[in-house]
Design a protein that fits this description.
- The chain starts with 12 loop residues before the first strand and ends with a helix.
- The protein is built from 8 helices and 7 strands, in the order E-H-E-E-E-H-E-H-E-H-E-H-H-H-H.
- It is about 45% helix and about 15% strand.
- The protein is globular and about 50 Å long.
- It has a domain of about 110 residues: 3-Layer(aba) Sandwich (Rossmann fold).
- Helix 3 packs across helix 4.
- The longest helix has 16 residues.
- It is of the alpha/beta class.
- The strands form 2 sheets. It has a 4-stranded parallel sheet with strand order 2-1-6-7, with helices on both faces. Strands 4-3-5 form a 3-stranded antiparallel sheet, with no helix packed on it.
Length: about 200
């Protein structure tokens, strides 16, 4: 999913993540995070996560349906296209993806990264859902401050090792408002734990 410009000068380092990270569209827009959507397959129809089927529509259909959807990782073509979009306005790319222990997403991202002529770092977040999203957000904030590729990786890598929890969707805005920072996992956990999610 391409992210529209927020009017702020693009970062030297582009951040990619997948839709399993549950990064709210407003934050993806604000920080220029490129989201590569998972596929949702339901009764032979293929939807891209976050596109074409709203959460409200999904749950309405889920309650009424006698069949259940399945998911599939983004395709290699989706990854290549996302990396190429990122490369148009950046000197390097950091890709932060759902745990390799759960899907083939990291492997496909590594394959796609070989198509680029700029430096790319692929990070296995070792997580999924909002925990993965917080790691992507920390990397994007560092990139926005003008950090180099190595500096962004230095923020995101330890963050992936330091988090071992996941938060419900509704906690996102509350935790961000409470000052949660992936670079400080313990203090962030306290801030989120004290938030009325």
């Amino acid at each position: 999913m391409a992210v529209q410009s927020s009017g702020v000068a693009p970062s030297r380092v582009a951040i990619l993540t997948d839709s399993a990270a549950c990064v709210p569209p407003a934050l993806a827009q604000e920080y220029g995070i490129e989201i590569v959507p998972f596929q949702l397959i339901w009764d032979g129809e293929v939807y891209l996560d976050g596109q074409g089927l709203t959460p409200a529509e999904f749950y309405r259909r889920f309650r009424a349906s006698s069949t259940y959807p399945t998911t599939a990782t983004p395709t290699l073509g989706q990854f290549i296209a996302a990396f190429q979009r990122a490369a148009e306005h950046a000197e390097g790319v950091v890709g932060i993806f759902v745990s390799e222990a759960l899907t083939s997403t990291v492997r496909l991202a590594r394959q796609a990264a070989q198509e680029l002529n700029i430096p790319v770092y692929i990070l296995d977040s070792r997580n999924g859902a909002t925990t993965e999203g917080f790691i992507a957000l920390a990397a994007a904030r560092a990139a926005r401050r003008g950090a180099s590729l190595e500096e962004v990786v230095a923020v995101a890598g330890p963050a992936a090792s330091g988090w071992a929890c996941s938060l419900p969707w509704k906690c996102w805005s509350t935790c961000v408002a409470a000052g949660a920072s992936v670079g400080r996992p313990r203090s962030s956990a306290r801030a989120c734990a004290s938030s009325p999610c």
